[in-house]
Structures are given as C-alpha cells and as structure tokens.
Hints:
Rossmann fold, globular, 4 helices, 5-stranded parallel sheet
Amino acid sequence: xxxxxxxxxxxxxxxxxAVGTVTNLVKNFNSQLVLLxxxxxxxxxxxxxxxxxxxxxxxxxxxxxxxxxxxxxxSPETLEREGRPAFIICDVADEMNADLIVMGCRGVGxxxxxxxxxxxxxxxxxxxxxxxVIP
Length: 135
C-alpha cells in the first residue's frame, strides 16, 4: 500500500515523537523510508532554533535520525535540500512518487494568525500524495 514513505525531519519534539509511528508504518507495509531535511534560507527578522540553516546541522540531524531507524533494522535513504520546507517536501514527494508523507505538527496551523506559517498545513494543501500528520 505504501511502497515509499517520505519523512521530513527537523529538530522539533514533534519530529522525534513521530519516529515510532513511522517505524511501525515502514515495518507493517515493508516500505522504503526516505528522510528529508531542508536547509532554510536565514531570516533576519525572527531566528528560529528549530529551523535548519546550515548544511552541517542538516547532516548531523540526518545521521542522528537515520541511526534511530537503523537500530530498528530499517535502512532509510537520506536527502538534503535547500529552500522553503513545504514546497521542497511536496516537490520531493512528487519526484520520488511517494505514497505517503508522514510529519510531525506543532499545532500552529490550528491558530488562524499562524496558519500561513504552518509547514504541515501547506504540505497538506500542496501534496501530490496523502499526508499523515502526527500531533
């Protein structure tokens, strides 16, 4: 059913909490797992420590999360891209014909003022495949 699962990751607690669900999905459906981390352009206005703004921090995060899956006998592919996360996530999902995107959600998309800034909300609206959002 889900041959390829795309799991976009960042430094958030929500990403870490979604690892268990992703592990279960990959094992249950014998899926190929692809981890994606996006280097974001730096913003002068309000820096966010969860945003990945350097290649080194992206590489470090990908290796950390990859090792979590390797411990569970899952061999994920890793991808690094640069740009605006929601658009990159959807582009990668389309390029690789992903069957499912699984991502954590901080809940900011539930607040009207923050809805435009929510990566998960944008992905839901732009995705070429189903999106499972883990609250």
